[in-house]
Structures are given as structure tokens and as C-alpha cells.
């Protein structure tokens, strides 16, 4: 069974009386969002969809975490301008673009545009609002009345020893506005005493102020593992998955679970632990220091293919994505095969059909249409004087429908982007209008001449031409590698190129004959 169906069925079995499910995910908006963060968003969105398709109500909340302190400076920001904000809650940091309300809104909206493009429309909530509107007040109160028990949970689960004077809370300093630098030193009625520490963290310096403050209504922040349990209890959440890093034994999830149950006395959400989404490739990691941002990958892949990539593997398996090499054409081919399974009357791999179903951006039932192979589109795009749409119609063998044409246009658009960015050498070529000066052996010259002669007769189709080339090669003393190299050198000025028979057929016959004759002289 496809993993989405498996998990959705398991949730319903575990919550037989539940009619409405609350699903939550979040992202701390400390800068450009990495594409890896999209995996969780998509998993949650797909599970919400699967529950709805099973007749349940599913509310999907995505939190813009704008309350964490700024604890790092992304390299693409003006360091001098931004270093003063280190330690402040993110929502108080100005946006790099004045059109956005603040720093986290700017990066959050950028990420949200990718989330929406792949077909999800979660309800956006903000950590700042939930703190400020008092949603968390009663939970903060509970936490403050159980500091010893919370210290004990940390110790038992993760082995981390918190000093006896440690309180699970940080307030926003009334003097300098930082939250990452303060330490609560005691509780006095409905207030806490605190100190803003100059040297508690390496990334921000506190101002040394000492004071007392009512910590409610957004004036304080809980540490992550406690906060997570409070976030579950605040909505309250029924389903929330999380990345591998949080789910290690003795890790943050284990601690949050115990705080949720024992201190807050609330149910723990259904967990969907998921593996990392890893990106690789030299080009990717070196691009302006930003790495593989959701925005960059969202521009490289069409939404449906990106969504397909995100759900193709079970959450328990890591996804390794390197846009260099043949990754992108292979991904398109896998998508197209899944489409075949979806539309097959007797699918061989029903899971692939389900994968295709969940890859759809729109709720409407997909219309079967012609999917031109991505590598072919890439080929036509690089052939001089060729109309990709016309050529694809010829391969299809009938007129293109409206859906076919949309598909072709989309593949041309993203094919061009790929050729301009990550396509490896083997896929990129340019037919040389003037014969390149290349060094060919006598045998290679003879080989080209024989092909030219063979082409002078009746027009040969790609397959026949391919067979003919192989026949000529076998009759010559050349190894296949050297033979095909001669073809590519003569036409492209490089060692490799697209499949030869098909390539020669696509070029003007007279052009090939002239070139091969010229170079064999
Ligand atoms: Zn301060």
C-alpha cells in the first residue's frame, strides 16, 4: 500500500471516534528556507488531503515561527546592518525588503509561495500572535509551577542536567529587547525576576539589565522542547510529524512528549517521523551561499514534479536530490511511468498510481494526455530550426490536444531552465554551423564518408539509420566509442551527444552529407 494511504488508515484506526483532525507544522523563519523544509509541509498537507478523501475534516495549520531569537546571520544579508538584532525575537527584526512587515514575514511569504505552488493552502498562524493573544498563558503558568519536574524530565530523557536555578522560560529584556540573552532567576507572585546576561550565548550580548516582569501575553518565550509541547496543547494538535533530528532517542520529541503528558496533562499528537531531504552537487552548495532554497528548487522544477519528488519515498527513507547529472530527466520519467500506472485499467504497480494521484496539484481528476519524454524535449530545444511542439506531435502520431499542448509548453519552459542551469555536459550540445577543426583518424574519416553515402539514398528513419550506422561501424576497424565520437566531433565539436541515428535523422540530410564529406577529405 502506498505510504500515504497506510498512514491515513492507521490514523483513522487509532482515532476511531475522531471526526476533525488538527494538523500542524512550523518553520522558524531565520532566513531563506531550505528545500528540505518542504518535505514536512508536503507530508502534512498530503495526510490532510488523504483524511479529507476518507470523509474526515482536517484542518492544516502552518506556523510562521517569528518568535525565536535571531541566532545567526545569513551570509546574503548586510552583516553590519543586521548584527545589532542578534538575540532579538525575529518579528522585531526589519525585513530585507521594505514591502514586508518584518524579517520573518519576508522569508515566510517566500516559502509560502512555494507551498501554494505545490498545491497546499494551510492556515497560517504566527508564534508571536499565539504568545501575545494569551493562548499560551495558562500553559506558561503550568510550566512555571513545575520547574523541578521539568528539570527531572530533561535529566531522565536526555541526561542533560539543568542547574537548580534554571527556569524553563526566557523573557524579552525590557531594556534591550533581546530574548536570547535573558535568564529567569526567580518567581515572585505573578512576576518573574530576570537578568539580561552579557555572556550567556556566543551569538548575542545581553545588556546586563536586571528586572522583574509579568511574563504573560507575549513578554516571554519557552525553551524549544517545552514550547513544542505547549504548541501541541494550544491548538490542540492531533497530528504533527517531525524531522529525524527531533526524533532521536532522548531527543527533543521524547522530552516534549513527557512534558505534554505529565506537566500539561494533554494528549500527544500522532507523530510522523520523517527522514532528511538532502541536497547535493557543487553548483547547488556554491550558489551565493544560499544553498538549495525552496525558492530556487521551486523555480527549477514544475510544481507537480516537485510535489512528486517530495512524496515519492516513504517518510522513513531519506531523499537525496542533486539537480546535476541525470536526476531531473529521471524524475520526469518516473513521474510519467507513475502516470501510466494511474491510467492503466490493470496497473502492475498500483502504488505508483496512488503516488501519481497524490502528486496532483488540483483537486480535479487528472485528464489523460500525452507526456513527451523530457530528454526528447531537451533534444528538440537544442536542434536548430526545429519546432518542439510540431516534432512532439509527430512522435505522438496524432494532433496534440489542449492538455497535450499545455504539457509541452510546461516541459519546454522547464527544459530551458534546466539546460541553462544544471544540465550536465552529455545533455547539452550545439550543432556547429561551420565545420569545427577536429582531428580525425583515417578510419574515422572513412566511417563518416560511408555514412554520408548511405544517407544519399532514400530517407532513413531514426531506427533504420541507427542500424545502418552500426552496420558501417562493424565493417570498419573502429571501436564503437571512436566511431560515434567521430559523428559528434564532426557535428558538435565534442566527444558525446544524443543518440546518433535519431540525431542525424533530425538534422537536415544535405547538411549532414556535406559536413561528413567535407571532413573526410
Ligand atoms: Zn537586555
Could you describe the 3D structure shown?
The protein is mainly alpha-helical and 521 residues long. It has helices at 3-14, 37-53, 79-82, 103-117, 127-132, 137-144, 147-158, 224-234, 252-263, 282-286, 294-300, 303-311, 327-343, 350-359, 374-382, 388-396, 402-420, 442-456, 462-475, 480-492, 500-506, 509-520; strands at 20-28, 57-65, 123-126, 170-171, 182-188, 191-196, 210-213, 220-221, 242-243, 273-274, 277-279, 319-321. Among the domains are: 278-427, Orthogonal Bundle (Arc Repressor Mutant, subunit A); 442-520, Orthogonal Bundle (Arc Repressor Mutant, subunit A). Helix content is 47%, strand content 10%. The longest helix has 19 residues, at 402-420. The chain starts with a helix and ends with a helix. The mean pLDDT is 94. Zinc ion binds next to loops.
Draw up the topology in text.
Layout: H1 3-14, E1 20-28, H2 37-53, E2 57-65, H3 79-82, H4 103-117, E3 123-126, H5 127-132, H6 137-144, H7 147-158, E4 170-171, E5 182-188, E6 191-196, E7 210-213, E8 220-221, H8 224-234, E9 242-243, H9 252-263, E10 273-274, E11 277-279, H10 282-286, H11 294-300, H12 303-311, E12 319-321, H13 327-343, H14 350-359, H15 374-382, H16 388-396, H17 402-420, H18 442-456, H19 462-475, H20 480-492, H21 500-506, H22 509-520
Parallel strand pairs: 1-2, 2-3, 9-10, 11-12
Antiparallel strand pairs: 4-8, 5-6, 6-7
Helix pairs in contact: 1-2, 7-9, 8-9, 12-14, 13-14, 15-17, 18-19, 18-20, 18-22, 19-21
Bound molecules: zinc ion (ZN).
